[in-house]
């Protein structure tokens, strides 16, 4: 029996991680589509998204020791966090500015999101949601595409687009508010993807994502009250 060399084992692991992450994405989308036409709506898909995204990475990490391959450890952490802070700060300012312009030009507040976050007590689960999203899209999926030799720019765009489209499958709100969230997701996916690839570390993208989520909370809860009283 010929020994399996490290490059072959690495490619095999990347292939399996990619299949698992794409399979989870397909399961989430199918669950969301079915739920949309039932009284349960997209809640099962959202639960599968959060539990599956974190669970899949933990499974590969603990069972195969693939923490570094999925960019959860190793790489250049300082570089990752530095660019995550810079990019997140830029998106934060842009989002607040756009939101003020949106409301002053007749835009309406995201009422359904406010009910979702406050009425259903989901506000405190945002840190868990951020980890699930970053682990799935910029961790296990993006890393596996890169390890399989896919062009880095194509890998970033593909994972960003999947992340954008996923908002339509898991958000139990109207299509208009899903579209607003999807538009916010695209720059997060692109900038986060390049930060992760250049540093081989996911935590800068987590920081970027966290800053944009803070700006979104200000969009929903603070800015409308300042503008409308």
Distance between the termini: 75 Å
Unreliable parts: none
DSSP summary, beta strand count: 0
Shape, per Cα inertia axes: globular
Task: Compute the number of helices.
Answer: 8
Task: Note the main sheet.
Answer: none
Strand content: under 5%
Tell me, rounded to a whole number, the average pLDDT: 91
Q: Report the order of strands and helices.
A: HHHHHHHH
How much helix, percentage-wise, in residues? over 70%
Determine the structural class based on helices, strands and strand pairing.
mainly alpha
The Rg value, from CA coordinates, equals: 18 Å
Label this structure with key terms.
mainly alpha; 8 helices
Write up what this structure looks like.
There is one protein chain. With 229 residues, this protein is mainly α. Helix content is 79%, strand content 0%. The chain contains eight helices and no strands. The model has no long low-confidence stretch (mean pLDDT 91).
Outline of the structure:
The protein is mostly helical and 229 residues long.
Task: Describe the SSE topology.
Blueprint: H1 6-36, H2 43-64, H3 77-104, H4 111-119, H5 126-147, H6 152-170, H7 175-199, H8 203-228
Helix pairs in contact: 1-2, 1-5, 1-6, 2-5, 3-7, 3-8, 5-6, 5-7, 5-8, 6-7, 7-8
């Amino acid at each position: 029996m010929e020994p399996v060399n490290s490059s072959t084992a690495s490619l095999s692991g990347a292939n399996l991680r990619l299949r698992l992450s794409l399979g989870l994405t397909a399961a989430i989308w199918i669950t969301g589509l079915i739920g949309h036409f039932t009284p349960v709506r997209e809640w099962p898909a959202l639960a599968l998204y959060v539990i599956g995204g974190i669970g899949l990475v933990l499974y590969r990490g603990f069972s195969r020791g693939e923490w570094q391959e999925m960019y959860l450890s190793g790489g250049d952490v300082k570089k990752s966090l530095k660019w995550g802070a810079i990019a997140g700060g830029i998106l934060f300012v842009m989002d607040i500015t756009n939101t003020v312009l949106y409301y002053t030009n007749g835009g309406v507040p995201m009422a359904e999101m406010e009910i979702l976050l406050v009425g259903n007590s989901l506000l405190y689960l945002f840190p868990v949601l951020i980890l699930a999203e970053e682990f799935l899209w910029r961790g296990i999926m993006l890393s596996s595409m890169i390890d399989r030799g896919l062009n880095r720019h194509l890998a970033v765009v593909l994972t960003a687009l999947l992340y954008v489209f996923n908002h339509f499958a898991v958000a139990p709100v109207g299509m208009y508010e899903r579209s607003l969230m999807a538009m916010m997701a695209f720059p997060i996916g692109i900038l986060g993807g390049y930060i992760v690839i250049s540093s081989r570390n996911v935590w800068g993208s987590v920081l970027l994502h966290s800053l944009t989520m803070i700006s979104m909370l200000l969009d929903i809860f603070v800015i409308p009250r300042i503008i409308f009283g």
